[in-house]
Amino acid sequence: LNIVVNGRVADAPDVTFEIISPSNAFNDLKLKFDIYEQFGVKEYFIIYPDDKTVVKYTLIAGKYQEQYREIGVIRSEIIGCSINF
Fold it and tell me: Is 34 helix (H, G, I), strand (E, B) or coil?
C-alpha cells in the first residue's frame, strides 16, 4: 500500500505474477521481463496456464536469476506464502 499515492501506483511492486497468454507471449516473456527487472520488482512469477508451470525469478544484484520451475506451485518469500493449484 505504501506505493499507492492518490489512488495511483507510484512505484514498482515487490512481486509480480504474469499469466502467459499465447497471443501476447512476446510481451509477457521479453518486454515485461526487462521492464520489471529494470524497475526493481523483487520476485517475478511467470505462469503458463496450459500445463500449470510456474517459473520464479528473483532480483539479485539488479538481474533476474531463475529460482525454480515447477508444476502448480507458487512460493513467495516476500509475501510469505505458498500456493498450490
Answer: helix
- Percent of the chain, pLDDT > 90? 72
Residue pair 57/64 in contact (Cβ under 8 Å)? The answer is: yes
Distance CA 49, CA 22 (A): 10
Note the pLDDT tens digit of each residue in 26-62.
Answer: 887 889 999 999 999 999 999 999 999 999 999 999 9
What span, in angstroms and rounded, lies between the C-alpha atoms of 43 and 46? 10
Q: What angle do CA 63, 76, 81 make, to 5 degrees?
A: 170
Give the DSSP H or E segment for 45. strand 43-48
Q: Flag whether the pTM goes above 0.70.
A: yes
- Let me know if 55 is exposed, middle or buried by CB neighbors in 10 A (0-12, 13-18, 19+): middle
C-alpha cell at 35: 521492464
